[in-house]
Each structure stands twice: as structure tokens, then as C-alpha cells.
Model the fold of this input.
Amino acid sequence: MTSFAPAFRPILERPPALAAAIVLGAAAALLALQAVVAQVEGDRGIAPVASSSDIMASGIEVNVQGDNPRDARERGWKLAQRLGWEKLKGPKLDDARIEAMVSAVVIESEQVGPRRYIATLGITYDRAKAGPLLGTTTAQIVSAPMLTIPVLKSGGVYTVYEVRNPWQRAWAEFQAGASAIDYVRPSGAGGDSLVLNYGQPGRRSRSWWRAILNEFGAADVLVPVAELSRQWPGGPVTGTFTARYGPDNRFIETFTLQAEGEAAIPSMMRQAVTRFDRIYTGALERGLLTPDPTLRADRVVLDPSIAALINSERDVRAAQAAASAAALAAGQPLPGPAVAATPTAQVVSSFVVQFATPNAASFDNGLASVQATPGVRAAATSSTAIGGISIMRVSFAGDAGGLAAALRARGWNVSQSGNTLSISR
Done:
């Protein structure tokens, strides 16, 4: 039998207080590692469906009988195709022509019996064939890419991607190809549940939002909120839905829907997503969904004192130009300007800067401090790790030693290794 006593003897031979501290520290580190792994492992992601521009009619309920299960299903599908066409207010056509325009049948729920078929279906019609008959065309205006964070409150608990839920599934299954809104829908797998949670819409940090939006390739954010209220177990469920948008979590509209029971919640969720799409499309037409300019990574905000100095310099130069023009008109010799020194071209180089970010405030302060350092032309994060070490890419007019000196002048402790710098307070 293998003995582990020699491995622990060096620790146990130490003073009791120190040995206890070492053991507790190792246990705490192991628990922290397990907690981080537990937050990202598991089957929690739902990949969004591929979006197409076809026309879809969803929520078609059928209840038919046939000679056998297969015959009943075929009759149910033909009935659903006709009912879907009527729901889209299409012209009266025979079943053969309607079936020729169908590109897909989506089974939302179904029950198959020996001679009976009960189902809720979604029928997708080919836009090239059905569009001219329905008088529909692709939306003329399309929004900027909008990161969509579906928040669900159920049983007093707010969730986004921590666990699979019907609200996340409804947004993942929504066919958004024909919508005027360019929805960016994360799958919720991997680290999405750590970055996108209920606390994110409440943050106001523009630097933090820019890092999130850049990661998902979006320009702004939409926050559809669903809150479920149950009157009693197994009884009716009331859904209160609120449309919000932007980094400031601004309100647009709210509405309520009713489900007869737990089994009807997915249908209510799908109906709510369709209504949210109409709400956001109307907001886009009213000009509400214009991306917030403070989220632009290239937006530079000058300090008021610096802006005043620039304006005063422009005024002085304008006055000098006017005096020179007046002297030239009077035939007087122009005052000889001082010999200007030939400007020395500065080479702008790129460097990697690592900085500790225990919280969102330290992330904002660190990025803002580096951006305001003299000689820095641009600074943008390439890796964000709240509670760890974040990394930014810095463009500086000079060499690594000059950047290190400039950062030290702003109160940073700097350690340099080639073109990589680590800074701390």
C-alpha cells in the first residue's frame, strides 16, 4: 500500500499555525478551481437556428383523424399548410399550389395516436414563391448588430444562461431572417454564462460594455425581460414582458400574456418573442435603436481644459493670419517668423500591457489611465478577465522604455519584458 505520510511530513513538522494556514490555503484554492469549472461546465447552451429570409407562420394547431398514424400526420400537415397560408392572409389557392410553396414544417409539439394526430406546427413558405402573392418584401432598413440578452425571472430568481430555460430556447428558435433587427444571439455555452448574466444590463461602464460588444461583434444591446407569476402549482401562469435596450437599460414597452399551465409556457414564450420583434422594429423606425455613440471604441473625449487650450491656439493663429494679410495689403514687410525647427518624425509602435482587474471599476480606471498617458495614440483591450489579469494593446509614439517611463509618471509600478509591460498600483 502506498503511504502518503512522507509527502505531508514537511508540512506537519512546521509550527502548527503555519501548517494549518498552508493546508487551509490549498483547500481554498482547490475549492475555488472547482467553483470556476462548475460555472462553465454542463449542457447549458442552446445554439440559435440558422436564420433565413423565408416567411413563417407559427403556432398552427391541428387535430385530425386518419386511417393510420402516417395518414393522420399527412392530413394534419396539409391542414396546417392551408391554415398557415390563411393566417398570412394569402389569396385563395388549392392545396397543391400551397404545398409547392412550403419549404419546411417545424414541429413545435405533437401527439400521434393510432388514428389521430394532434400538433402545433410552424409552416415556412419560400419567399421567392410566396412573396409576390403576399405582397411582402425584405425589410428596407436593417438595424446595427444588436447583442440580445434574454433575462428570465421565475420563482424569484433571475437567470440568463446559467441554466437552460424556455425563454432562452424561444429566442434561440426564433426565425429572425425576415426581421429588420439584426439579432446577435449567443448560444450560452462555455463562458457566456459568466460574461452575460442578470447583472450585466445593470452595469453602466462604457469600457466594460465595449469589451463585451467587441467580443460578440455587436454595436448595441437589447434586453428582453420575461417575468413569470404562478397563481398556484399547476395553475395559470402570467407572463409580464418588458422590452429594454442600450447600456443604460432604457425602457421601451411592456405587455402581459397568459398561459393555462406549465405545458403552455413554451407557446406563450414564442408568442412573446414575435411581439418583441414588432416592438423593437417599431423602435428602430422611430430612431430609438441608433447605437449609443459612447460605445464606439474610437470615440475620444477631450478634457474641457485641453479643449479650451486648443481653441485659444486656433484663435491666436487666426489673429496672426489676419495681421499678415493686412500688412501684405498695405505693402509693409511681413514680420519674420522664427526659424521653425524641422519636426522629427515619431515612430508609433504597438505594445502589450497587462494590468490587474479585480473588479469592473479597476478595469475602467486602468484603461482610462493608459489612454490618457502622454504619447499613447490608442489603447484597446484584447483580453478581459475580471478578477484576474486583463491585457490591452497600446499604440505609443516611442519605444517600450518611453512607454514605461510615461506610465511611471502617472503613478504605475511598471515591470518590462521586451515589448510586454505589466503595470500595477
